[in-house]
Specification:
69% helix
């Protein structure tokens, strides 16, 4: 799949915005606060960080992004 320069710029901006919001929420909460029955804020943040790294690598393999 090809991604135009405009699309790529929009994607990068939107992901950065969402990431900033997520970080603000994580920083505002106590690390040991439960967010699900079994996961704390810290557990959830670690999970999201791992998945986003994996997804970024996977996406770069599938999409031809402007350099």
């Amino acid at each position: 799949m090809d991604v135009s320069v405009r699309q790529w710029e929009r994607i990068r901006r939107d992901v950065a915005t969402a990431g900033d919001r997520f970080v603000a929420q994580v920083e505002a909460a106590a690390a040991d606060r439960r967010v699900t029955r079994h996961w704390s804020v810290a557990d959830t943040a670690a999970h999201v960080a791992t998945l986003t790294d994996f997804d970024a690598v996977n996406t770069m393999r599938k999409v031809r992004c402007p350099r």
